[in-house]
Specification:
alpha+beta, 10 strands, 194 residues, ten-stranded antiparallel sheet
């Protein structure tokens, strides 16, 4: 019986470990931690797909106990992509302390102000692209980027009014206008008299 080659076994082990790592990374990025706020003021925390199927009739999330929850879009006020789940803050798990910008934002995007169907106002920066008209909702960057909430998804059914406050361009994207060349006189030699 031939002995197995130790180098081949070590190479196979490294290859298998690399495949497991790659698979784990794919799984980690497939679901994002979210907090779903409903119009009934209650909320639930869990994991949602990165593109959670806004065309679907309901939002599907995997809660912290491993149970699949299905929530109708008409009951969803917003979906907050968060850094971590709340430990003790049951009243404001999203930790959205600032819902309006105190000063003009510095990040490029479309500064939007909206009133939701329950009367609450919210501001955020949206990408200036076709998702504003084609999407089933708006993905916003909140006013306080240091809070627990990184992005907010607001379904279209939850928006009562929407106002564009400003278009904020990219900092390095300013174009310099070239001055027009000097216009030549009509009569050469100083015969221009009125």
């Amino acid at each position: 019986m031939a002995r197995p080659n130790c180098t081949a076994i070590a190479a196979f082990s490294l290859l298998a470990a690399a495949c497991r790592v790659r698979q784990c990374r794919a799984m980690a990025s497939a679901r994002k931690p979210v907090i779903v706020r409903k119009f009934s003021r209650d909320w639930c925390a869990g994991y949602a797909d990165a593109a959670f199927g806004q065309d679907a009739a309901e939002l599907e999330i995997l809660d912290l106990t491993g149970k699949v929850l299905r929530i109708g879009w008409d009951a969803v006020k917003w979906v907050c992509y968060v850094r971590d789940f709340p430990a003790g803050d049951q009243a404001n798990p999203e930790r959205l302390l600032h819902k309006r910008f105190a000063t003009r934002p510095r990040t490029a995007g479309l500064w939007l102000r909206m009133t939701l169907t329950d009367g609450e106002e919210l501001e955020g920066l949206a990408a200036n692209d076709r998702s504003l008209i084609d999407g089933a909702g708006l993905l916003l960057t909140p006013p306080d980027t240091r809070s627990n909430t990184q992005r907010i998804y607001v379904p279209r059914q939850a928006i009562q009014t929407l106002e564009t406050v400003s278009l904020i361009g990219a900092a390095g994207g300013r174009r310099h206008v070239q001055s027009a060349p000097e216009q030549p006189g009509l009569f050469p030699g100083g015969l221009d008299t009125a």
